[in-house]
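User: Could you go from structure to sequence for me? I need the amino acid at each position, not a summary. Structure tokens:
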């Protein structure tokens, strides 16, 4: 009674192909990406600690999963070089750094000026240097002071602000940018 005729089947096929063609022409990148097999998403970071001379190039996240031994290595290179104390770095800080590195399109390692700071180191710096917060995010592994060789720190500062992902400070006399995973603010 209500069978599907050859005309209805061909019409449906024609409409599906036509719609797919129109969508593919409007969104070619999406269409091409859908044809490729999924690439594993890797989050790589390279560091150079200016105080210890240590370098690290590692993948800390792959296919959405945090790689704990890589985070441990990053926490080691970001340790308080004055005391040797280590605090696990906030993965959100690593994600922020990854976004910045991709945005500035650099292959050069991030120079660590200051990573984790023990409360004792932070208090000492507060006494001898201006601009060190009493409850600094450095003491909880949620902040880093960086520069990227060959990339202007002022430009890095503005690129970081545009991400609106936490605190961003620019210290032109010392030529570094502060990043943290606290509230969005800049100075």
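Assistant: Here is the amino acid at each position, in order:
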């Amino acid at each position: 009674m209500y069978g599907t005729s050859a005309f209805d089947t061909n019409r449906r096929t024609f409409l599906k192909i036509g719609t797919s063609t129109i969508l593919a022409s409007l969104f070619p990148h999406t269409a091409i990406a859908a044809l490729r097999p999924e690439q594993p998403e890797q989050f790589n970071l390279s560091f150079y600690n200016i105080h210890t001379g240590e370098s690290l190039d590692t993948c800390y996240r792959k296919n959405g999963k945090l790689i704990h031994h890589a985070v441990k290595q990053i926490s080691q290179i970001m340790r308080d070089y004055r005391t040797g104390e280590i605090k696990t770095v906030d993965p959100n800080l690593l994600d922020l750094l990854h976004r910045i590195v991709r945005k500035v399109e650099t292959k050069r390692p991030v120079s660590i000026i200051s990573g984790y700071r023990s409360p004792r180191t932070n208090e000492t710096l507060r006494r001898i240097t201006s601009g060190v917060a009493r409850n600094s995010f450095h003491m909880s592994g949620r902040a880093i002071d960086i520069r990227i060789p060959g990339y202007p720190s002022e430009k890095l500062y503005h690129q970081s602000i545009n991400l609106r992902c936490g605190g961003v400070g620019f210290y032109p006399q010392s030529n570094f940018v502060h990043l943290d995973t606290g509230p969005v603010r800049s100075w």
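One structural detail worth keeping in mind: Confidence is low (pLDDT under 50) at residues 29-37.
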